[in-house]
Amino acid sequence: MNRYFYIDAEGKQKGTFSPDELIHENVKRETLVWTQGMDQWMRAGEVAELSYIFSETFIAQGAAQPQAQYTHPVMSQTTATQQPMPKTWLVESILVTILPFILCSSFLSLLGIIGIVYAAQVESFFNRGDYTASAESSRSAERWTKIAMWIAIGWILLIIVTIILVLVFVGSVSGIGEWLNT
C-alpha cells in the first residue's frame, strides 16, 4: 500500500499517509494527492487505489466525509468556460528589438526589451489562474512591441532619406563642377 502526500485546503503539502489515514485527514475527491511513481499531482478521486474511499458503500458504512477542499486557481468552477491564453507577443518583441538594432544600430529599438518583459509574464500569470493580469500583460507587450516597431521603421526611413539626400547633394555638386568647367 502506497503512502500519499496531499495538499490541504490552505494549499500546504501534508504527508505521508496511508489510504485509510487519508480518510481522517478530510481528503475529498478534488484534493490533490501524490505518491512515488506518479508523474504529477492528481485528484484523489482519480487515483485507483483511493477510489474505494469515495464509493457510496464505504460512505454509507459510516466513514466521515471530509469538509475541507483545496481549490486550485486554474481548476476553479469556471474551468469549463476558461478563456484561452492571451497572445504572448514574445517572438515579435524579440524580433523588433534585435533586428532593427542589428540593421541600423538604433538604441531606441531597445525599447522592445520592455515588450519582452511583459510578454514573458503572460504565460506565467495565465498558469497561475490570473487571467486578468495575463490579458493586461499581453496588452502591454503588444503596445511596447508596436512602439519599438514604429521606432525601427522611422529610423530605417530616416536612414534611407538621408542616403537619398546625400546622393542627390553629391550628384548636384559634381554636376555644378562639370557645368563650371565648360
Features:
single chain, 182 residues, alpha+beta, 5 helices, 8% strand, rod-shaped
Concise account of the structure shown:
With 182 residues, the protein is of the alpha+beta class. It has five helices and four strands.
What structural class is derived from the secondary structure elements? alpha+beta
The overall average pLDDT, rounded, is: 79
The helix content, as a percent range, equals: 40-55%
User: What number of domains?
Assistant: 2
Side by side, the strands of the main sheet go: 2-1-3-4
Sheet having the most strands: 4 strands, antiparallel
Number of helices: 5
Rounded to the nearest angstrom, the distance between the terminal CA atoms is 107 Å
Global shape: rod-shaped
State which percent range the strand residues make up.
5-15%
Number of strands: 4
Order of helices and strands: EEHEEHHHH
- Radius of gyration, whole Å: 31 Å
Unreliable spans: 60-81
